[in-house]
Design brief:
homotrimer; alpha/beta; Rossmann fold; SH3 type barrels; five-stranded parallel sheet; four-stranded parallel sheet; 11 helices; globular
Chain lengths: ~350, ~350, ~350
């Protein structure tokens, strides 16, 4: 049973296949209108996320399938203390595929190990959100035609923005990409993400605090929100805030064919006045997200039909003697769940929690 | 893109066309069972209204379509600060038509200006609720055959009852109707609604506090709830309450073919004992509401298919320099939304907020 | 209009017919995939119960029908004071069949008396939950082939466990069954349930506090949760708790073909380590619950099509002069609902509330 918890659960060729399927869906929607007739998607949203939930539901309906589920934990058996593992087993009796959102990091991974149907991670805390990344990739592909040779700026909160981390991870599997990181010092990209960027293969990496200075160089500008609560110093926040709000003035020096991305919802980090600019592609991302979710649902259900099973990672070393320190890890709440760490760097004695990826020295 | 925010967004001939379609749906349901196959209705209910929501959903399913949406704001991105405009743009990527309920007056209007799909107002605060009025009209049409020549009594809270205001507005476009307003002085019909009633064309208008006195004259009795919270003097409330509760005794003097309407839910303003009376039509209203919503969804989707666009109001004068005083107006919460007023009476220097219709002197 | 509020609303031959239909659905799902095309199930859940709700929804979709509804009271008109009776009448305009969950005992009965469509009780407080019992029966039938001659152990909280009471009631209509009740003294089966067990027809009845002592004799072990809040003495709770937690060690002496049932959700009363045991059938119960709900929906809709009406109970004597003492009875909240008691034992002057079955001496 193949599930997608992390964007890296999909190989580059699988991502390319999904992009191709999505393009074909866009060209020939009628061809796909009944392909999931009789199939059911379960949207298990343990915290609200209307946009993502409705995107999955629209995707399933456009494939001819049906949807069951819930939109917040308050209306679930979780309040009666049911484990994620049991929920996954029960829902496997009702549906053909699961899209799960959960505030605990690693919850969809636990579900994927217990369900007898495919599980798609629709966001687990600050951890993974692979279908947002698929939406970003399709938008770049459709607007730019390719990933290679682009100068990609990420602006705003690069420290906590999981969509930024995940898109960088995904782009690092291609080549010749110039990353430009634009953020206040407080919100710089974490070292462990930066370390993923290949040395060589045409990758470059620049950091700056000045959006306007780098604007003319960018092919893509990926905006994120600078949240007040990230700052200890309110004056510092107020000083910085305006520098990272995108408006028509700041766009004056941008390339004519630059594209502006944003994972939404936005609050005020992109002025409404920018929406009319043809370079604004954030509502196209929404549309593309639906198409990529259609492609992903279709692929996973087809894999089931063909009897394809999960690719086993071979040669990995696991450790079981530690407790994960991440308070948002699913291991802190799920009953009878064994702690498991995968050794990622034996020479440095570093392992990572298999659920939430938090690093641990051993 | 045609949307229906106010009952007046539909011309008399469009209302008549909807009534005809609804009658045909009732006669030939099978003919319509698949007409919306592959289409999606989004029910965006920013406050709960189970009856209205389920009516829209049942309507869409009986047309062969599907439904996505949410039933209360707590499970939406609105809690993350997303604007109504952005929500409308996003949902346009997922659905073919929107039914929106919102506590802020004018919110569906804002949605209609930003969506690329038709928007139906399913109730915005105390402002508009056009599909309830359509349900009322079909019930009168089916039970009475016509609108002309009827004596229509409205009883209870005529001050705040938006369904009363809206039905009066709709009926004023026909002719020869006798309005009888039955209410305590505290809850009389507001002047701005009364002023809509034509002088001439066979209209008459009477006010009374005495339900039993006028009962024998009525062809239609439209009941509403007298809510305790509308009164400052509790003794006054207790004294009046029973006078406006409909029971079999009060019905003794009514015409044999009078019909009793109520927008529901009722609490105690109509005794359960009345339900068995053949004149009780409030559950028929529920049924008719579903049929009119089917007719409206169908019409708006057909308008899209035919490329019909919104009728432009010509010659209107707009002002932009004021702030709307209505605390329930969408302009109080929606970001980057410009205040706009339409001049309705240049001689008296009166304009109205285009969102919530609140009057302003300029 | 036939409704199912209590498992006893179905005759033994009707239950057998449902079991046969469910078996046929399992064998030939494609045969049923479109039988409810155009029909709508309304899931009216006045309190959350995700598992039961999703089971009904999955059932309806697998029959080709659609679903409308709500998952908690907070998003309903009930908060505006609408009665269960009015809700039932309104929903009858929107759907073809209702599944209702309600915290008040007797609410689905009130709905069934006011709806013009069939009502299925999906759980009313601590009162009835007939579709769980149907799930239990199908699981026993599929795993054991028959009900006669079995030794059935019920373990845990037998005092408050309504699923236990209901399954005993259902099994008492067959013959040759040995009941073994395993519980702490505080949580023994109530006398009124025990009294239902026939004297003769091959029934035996044993009580014990010792699970391990009786384990080797059981064909079926029905586990329930021992909740801390049932105990006044916390030390007593802690002393007893472990004795009623099922784990692989305790299963060592059980028959090789014993089956383990549990209504779910479980918390810790069955160790996760038991899940891998082939005798663990509680997730099969989930699957079977969906099939029995399919069979029941189908039967009730077919009864409507054939014009079958409710079987009238003849010869019953009713009393109207008392007030029900049960604070969870629907009569405590539903407006204008007459108190009705059915005489069940004239010689002992005992009657029962027709809504919640609470006993009253007259």
């Amino acid at each position: 049973m193949k599930s997608v918890v992390d964007i890296l659960d999909l190989s580059v060729s699988e991502v390319d296949e999904l992009l191709d399927t999505a393009m074909d869906i866009i060209e020939n929607p009628a061809k796909y209108a009944e392909v999931c007739r009789g199939k059911k998607l379960a949207t298990l949203f343990f915290e609200p996320s209307t946009r993502t939930r409705l995107s999955f539901e629209a995707a399933m309906y456009e494939l001819g399938g049906n949807v069951i589920g819930f939109s917040s934990a308050s209306s679930t058996s979780a309040s009666k203390g049911e484990s994620v593992a049991d929920t996954a087993k029960v829902i496997s009796c009702y549906a053909d595929i699961i899209a799960m959102r959960h505030p605990k990091e690693g919850a969809p991974f636990v579900a994927s190990k217990n369900a007898s149907i495919p599980v798609i991670n629709a966001g687990d805390g600050g951890h993974h959100h692979p279908t947002q990344t698929l939406a970003d990739l399709l938008t770049i592909k459709r607007e730019k035609g390719h990933f290679s040779g682009l100068t990609v700026g990420f602006c705003g909160d690069l420290k906590f923005g999981r969509t930024v981390h995940s898109l960088i991870t995904a782009l690092c599997r291609y080549e010749n990409i110039n990353f430009v990181m634009i953020s206040p010092d407080e919100l710089k990209l974490p070292g462990y993400v930066k370390n993923e960027i290949p040395q060589g293969r045409g990758f470059t990496y620049t950091e700056t605090t000045d959006l306007e200075a780098v604007m003319p160089t960018l092919d893509i500008l990926y905006m994120t929100r600078v949240q007040q609560e990230r700052f200890t110093d309110i004056d510092e926040y107020l000083r910085l805030r305006d520098a990272y709000i995108l408006n028509p003035e700041k766009l004056a020096t941008a390339k004519k064919d630059m594209i502006i991305l944003h994972p939404l919802p936005r609050v005020n980090e992109i002025s409404v006045a920018v929406d009319a600019d043809p370079r604004a592609c954030y509502f196209k991302q929404v549309q593309n997200g639906k198409y990529m979710r259609m492609a992903l649902i279709l692929k996973l259900l087809n894999d089931v039909k063909c009897g394809k099973t999960e690719d086993k990672e071979q040669g990995d070393v696991y450790l079981y003697d530690f407790k994960c320190d991440n308070p948002r890890c699913i291991t802190t709440t799920e009953q009878e769940l064994r702690q498991v760490f995968r050794v990622v760097s034996p020479e440095n004695r570093i392992c990572r929690c298999v659920y939430c990826d938090t690093k641990k020295n051993y």
